Amino acid sequence: MKLLRSSAIALVIGSVAAPSFAADPELTVFDWAGFEEPSIFQGYVDKYGDSPTYAFYGDDDEAYQKLASGFKADVAHPCSQMVSKYRDAGLIEPWDTSKIPAFDTIAPRFLDSEIFKDDQGVWYIPTDWGATAIAYNKEVVPAEDVASLNVFINPKYQGRTSLPDSADDVWALAYLATGTTDWTKVTDEQFKAAADWLRQAHQNVAAYWADPSEQAQLMASGAVDIAWSWNDGVVLLENDGFPVGFQRAPTEGSSMFFCGFINLKNGPGKEEKAYDFINAWLAPPAAKALLDTIGYGHTSTVAMETIKDEPAVKEGLADVDAPILSQTPNDPQQRERQLQEFEKIKAGF
């Protein structure tokens, strides 16, 4: 399972925007590498005898640009803050939830936005969620050093940290580090404080990781000791026996995100198979497969009930006594401002 993820991720690094896992030609899924693990949508495989055809991308903005430029798929798997962009561009259509029996089991907090659900229909099926927090080498980094997000600007770790090459995640980090826990209401002063902090953090960065496999490799090789990480990078390191810690409760807090599926207009495949795929994803057994493969939680309350006692849930997904910045939809203009500023920061400006 781990080798499968690594090989798929390697395709993403090469920016392959064509189907990379050719299987059932009547459903094309545009997704993050790693989610092609069949056990997550086993019901679909059982019904059709094969997985969908998969195409992979490395980050949300790359996926949007490719779809906006004409790349064809049936469904895609953006995180929540991207849905408004797809809607505004007219790239998606509502789901018919009468064809999704488990829709009502999705925890209401994942649909609490008119961007996802309004009088025109349901535009988004949230399926999975996770945390972004501090991953660190427990044999090198004392626990007290990661008690604060300021470990990322600590001179002691110059050249020893890694941040995601994702504007959403780095701004979540910077806002938290400077005392902002709601990015839907950011003032100019808060934006400036976060940007200044990110510029300091940039001085310590050895590399910006493009995907969890790269982040895990950076840590496993000893190139870095600390990373701002999703759950899956931690899972990869744990599977390799690496002494990784995952600090989700530093003083300033950590972040949570959730992702799901959109129904792309004019998809080349069969619509009924898109619904079979979603129904397989929302089935209770998918929760265990998702947790074991990626380390993420499931949006279905029924599915989550089946894994509530798993150690990985208690360690990587349970509630923590610290502030949480939820990566819910934010203002598209503010997000664009963050993207542009992040590019300047990475370039050293």
CATH top level assignment of the largest domain? Alpha Beta
Quote the average pLDDT. Answer: 92
Approximately how much beta-strand content do the residues carry?
A: 15-25%
Number of helices: 13
CATH superfamily of the largest domain: Periplasmic binding protein-like II
Q: Main β-sheet: number of strands, strand sense, barrel status?
A: 12 strands, mixed
- Share of residues in helices: 25-40%
Q: What is the count of distinct domains?
A: 2
CATH architecture of the largest domain: 3-Layer(aba) Sandwich
Descriptive overview:
With 349 residues, this protein is α/β, with parallel strands linked by helices. It folds into two domains: 25-129 and 257-317, 3-Layer(aba) Sandwich (D-Maltodextrin-Binding Protein, domain 2); 131-255 and 322-347, Periplasmic binding protein-like II (D-Maltodextrin-Binding Protein, domain 2, 3-Layer(aba) Sandwich), CATH 3.40.190. Helix content is 36%, strand content 20%. It is built from 13 helices and 14 strands. The strands form two sheets. Strands 1, 2, 3, 4, 7, 8, 9, 10, 11, 12, 13 and 14 form a twelve-stranded mixed sheet that branches. A hairpin with a 2-residue loop joins strand 5 and strand 6. Helix 7 crosses helix 8. The longest helix is centred in the middle third of the chain and has 15 residues, at 188-202. It is globular. The protein starts with a helix and ends with a helix.
List descriptors.
single chain, alpha/beta, D-Maltodextrin-Binding Protein, domain 2, 20% strand, globular, disordered N terminus
Write the layout of secondary structure elements.
Layout: H1 2-13, E1 24-32, H2 42-48, E2 52-57, H3 60-68, E3 75-76, H4 83-88, E4 92-93, E5 117-118, E6 121-122, E7 125-137, E8 161-164, H5 167-177, H6 188-202, E9 205-209, H7 212-220, E10 226-230, H8 231-239, E11 244-247, E12 254-264, H9 271-282, H10 285-293, E13 297-298, H11 301-305, H12 311-316, E14 324-326, H13 332-346
Parallel strand pairs: 1-2, 1-3, 8-9, 8-10, 12-14
Antiparallel strand pairs: 3-12, 4-12, 5-6, 7-10, 7-11, 7-12, 7-13
Helix pairs in contact: 5-6, 5-13, 6-13, 7-8
Keywords: Periplasm, Signal, Transport
Protein name: Extracellular solute-binding protein
GO molecular function, one term: polyamine binding
